[in-house]
Amino acid sequence: MFDRSVRDLAAVDTLSLAPFSEPRIEPEIVFGLSAAPSAQMDEAALSSCIDWVALGFEIVQSIFPGWKFSAADTVAANGVHGALLIGPRHPFAPQSAEWQRTLPAFRIDLSCGGRPIDRGHAENVLGGPLSALRHLVGLLANDPFNPPLAAGEIVSTGTLTKAMPVAAGETWTAVPTGIALDEIRLRFV
What is the H or E stretch that residue 132 is in? Predict the structure, then answer.
């Protein structure tokens, strides 16, 4: 992700697909960190490092026709990230116990133009978004080239559904169930 590719969804009326190559949409849980987590933390302790939680859309893209590429290709192409659009942010600490209970177990329905497209579950992301965050913290602790996560950083934990192709004129909606996060919507031009 880059400073120029991360925006609040409330500030984005529509998103032009012109800059993206074979774009797809992914609903994801996004965390804002208030403190640096460490690899020794369990998920409860890790939760104390989270400032806010939100549902967001990541727009991913591929310079490889038909999305046919190897893992090495994605590294060489600087990943598949195109944009991250963050929905309403909810403070984590006041409801930490509730977030810890619901983050591993909610489901999400992804639709386009009111038509159901896919249903995802929290466990699709390494057993849940907190588990995915903990996994990342552990990987970075053993990585000699990349720094650990720090306060102020934003972490998107991975797609909850299949990455679905998008086209201009479409409106996509993600509706979570079993968690106190807002429905999000995005229209493409």
Answer: helix 129-141
Q: Which two tokens stand for residue 30?
A: 């996004």
Residue 20: what residue type? Answer: F
State the Cα–Cα distance between residues 25 and 61, nearest whole angstrom.
9
Structure tokens at 20: 């993206």
Helices (H) and strands (E) in the chain, counts: 4, 11
pTM greater than 0.85: yes
Please state, in angstroms and rounded to a whole number, the distance separating the CA atoms of residues 122 and 130: 10
Structure token digits, residue 18: 């012109």
Do 125 and 160 contact (CB within 8 A), yes or no? Answer: yes
Helix H or strand E encompassing 101: helix 96-102
Model pLDDT for residues 110-136, shown as the tens digit of each residue: 999 999 999 999 999 999 999 999 999
3-state secondary structure (DSSP) of residue 146: coil
In tens, the pLDDT along 12-65 reads 989 999 999 899 999 999 999 999 999 999 999 999 999 999 999 999 987 766
Residue whose C-alpha is closest to residue 173's, from 111, 92, 119, 85: 111
79 Cβ contact partners less than 8 Å away, ≥ 6 residues apart: none
